[in-house]
Amino acid sequence: MKSTIVIYGSSTGTCQSIAETIAAKLGASAVDVTSIDEAAISDHDNLILGTSTWGAGELQDDWYDGINLLKSAGLSGKTVALFGCGDAESYPDTFCGGMKELYDAAKEAGANVLEGVSTEGYTFDDSDAVVDGKFVGLSLDDVNEDDKTEERIDAWLEAIKPSL
C-alpha cells in the first residue's frame, strides 16, 4: 500500500472514532481536517476523506476550509476514498449527503476517486451522496446501526485496498 492518510472532520467525535478505526486497520494516521496543510496532502499518495452530515445534508463545518485546501493542492495522481457518517432514522432524506461535496471537490481537483458502496442493506429515503445507484463512498449510521459499522468498514477496506 502506498502512503495513505485518513483526514476527517468531526463535531461530536463519531467521525473521528471511525476515522481512527479505519486508520488503525490500514496502518495509516488519522488527522483532523483542521490540522491539514498542503504539504500533508502532497506527502501522501492516498487520501481517505471522512465527514459527518448535518441538518439538510450539509458538510461538517471544518471541511469548508478543507475543501478549498483540497482544490488548491491539486489531487492529480492521488487516489481518494470517501466515508461519511449520518443518521438515516432522523434524516432519511439527506443521509450522508455531505460526502457528495467531498466527492465533487476531489473530482474537480483531479483525483482518482474510488468507487463507492452499494445502497443495498441501507434504510434511507434519499441522499445527494448516491450517484448511479451507489453511495460515493462508505456510508455509516453509527447512531442507529452501530452493530453494522465494523462489518461495513471491513468489507469496504477489502474492496478498496487493491487500489491503495
Automatic annotation (TrEMBL):
Matching entries from Gene3D superfamilies are given as: 3.40.50.360
Q: Which cofactor does it need?
A: FMN
Would the keyword Ribonucleoprotein turn up in this protein's UniProt record? no
GO MF term (any one): FMN binding
> Which keywords does this chain's UniProt record carry?
Electron transport, Flavoprotein, FMN, Transport
Domain (Flavodoxin-like) ranges: 4-161
**Top-level division of the source organism's lineage:** Bacteria
Q: Does the keyword Flavoprotein apply?
A: yes
Annotated Pfam families? Flavodoxin_1
What role does it play? Answer: Low-potential electron donor to a number of redox enzymes.
Q: Which family does it belong to?
A: Belongs to the flavodoxin family.
| Protein name per UniProt | Flavodoxin
